[in-house]
Structure formats: structure tokens, C-alpha cells
Amino acid sequence: MTSVTTCYMCDSVETSREHAPPLCFFPEAKEFGRDLRRNLITVPSCDQHNSKKSNDDEFLRSVVLMAAGSNQAGQHQFHWKILPATSRKPHTYRSFFADKGTVARGTGHASQIDRDRFDLCIDHLARALFFHTFKRRWQLPVTTLSPNFYSGIDSDTMVPHQPTIEAVEVSRQVLGSEPVNGKNPDVFQYRIRYDEIEEGLAFAAIFYDCFEVYSYSSKDLANAALNTTEEPD
């Protein structure tokens, strides 16, 4: 008898495999000249959490590739994928970013993104990699942050979000002893830590050597969030 596999996100039966991160992040060998699609991570998925989220995959890739300092693989994806796609679907790609003007005397550009949508994309990624590593679903809420995001503009200069910077430093210390994973580090590397006793999860990833994300989740944090939303007696 063949066992039924369920989706990494829900109880639906597997209908496909979801790449983590999405396949669109990885250059095609015939265009890039090197094969960076080797040994990619996939997890069982339903249609709702795979094919129906393709627009979110494009959104996430676009946000990541707008970061300055990407390596050769990132620059390739930007010029070969993002720019042509922007020409084909200008309204879609314009909806990803709200123009906030220039900074640094016109040498840089500031944009605002849909942060809830970004966090949901990383939420899916963290859960997929947890499923891949520990063979079960993570069901607690996930909090995401990134040092690549800023809190605003002051005197023509981007202003870092200090609480995020401090939280990132703590996350780096927590994950520092964990092994770096990822068979194609030019595109994606990650660390993951699971504390079974405390029911805590910490996750970090870097895309194209330039864009960092950190996620954390625990039973205590979930309970604290629930208590703050309860109405007083």
C-alpha cells in the first residue's frame, strides 16, 4: 500500500513538489554558463501552496534582487529575468514597489514594499525548510526580519531600524554554531536551529551573498502574542 503524503503547509494531499527557495531564484545553466540548479530542495505541496503562489515567488525574487551588492548570479537574474519581465508585465512589477524617491544625492533609490506579503513568503520558506530538515510541519506563528530593510529617510539618508539591527545580532549569535546549508551557495544559503524542549525555531538565510533574512518562532512567543490580544475581564 502506498502511503499518502500531505502538504508541508496544511493537511491537503500532496499534488506537487514545492522548491525552497522557489525555482525562479536559480539561473538556468544554458543562460548562466554554470549549473546552479543541482540538488535543489523540494517538499510535498498542494496546489494552493505551490502553483497558485507563483506571483508571490516573483514578488519575493524581485524584492531580493533590488538589494545592492548582489553577486554574479544575482546580477544575471536581475538582467535576464527581472528586466524582461518588467517590460512584459509592467503593471504587475510596478505593484511590487511604491516609489519613495532618491537618496544619497540621487545615487540611490528608495522603495516601499508590501511587508506583510514579504513576511508571508519567508514564512513559507522557513516552514518548507523545517519540513525538509525535520520531516514534520511547523505550526506556530513565525516572525521575520531583515537588516536589508530601513525604517525611513532622514536628511537624504536611509535610516536603519535599530530594534531590527539588535534582533539580527542576537539571531546571528544563536545560529552561529549551526552548519551552513545549501548546495548552491551563489544563490542561497541557510542555517536552521530547532530546540525541541523549548519548542523554538530559529532560521537565517542569505540570497546572492547580499540579502539576509532571519525568522524565529516559539511556543512562548505564540502564547505571549495570544495573551496580548485577549480582552480584559
Overall shape: it is globular
Estimate the helix proportion, in percent. Answer: 25-40%
Strand order of the largest sheet: 5-10-9-8
Count of runs of 4 or more consecutive helical residues: 7
User: What is the tally of beta strands?
Assistant: 10
Q: Poorly predicted ranges (pLDDT <50, ≥5 residues)?
A: 229-233
Gyration radius, to the nearest Å? Answer: 19 Å
For the biggest sheet, the summary is: 4 strands, antiparallel
User: How much of the sequence is in beta strands?
Assistant: 15-25%
Average pLDDT metric: 92
The domain tally reads 1
Structural class: alpha+beta
- State the order of secondary-structure elements, H for helix, E for strand: EHEHHHEEHEEEHEEEH
Kindly, what is the distance between the CA atoms of the first and last residues, rounded to a whole number of angstroms? 53 Å
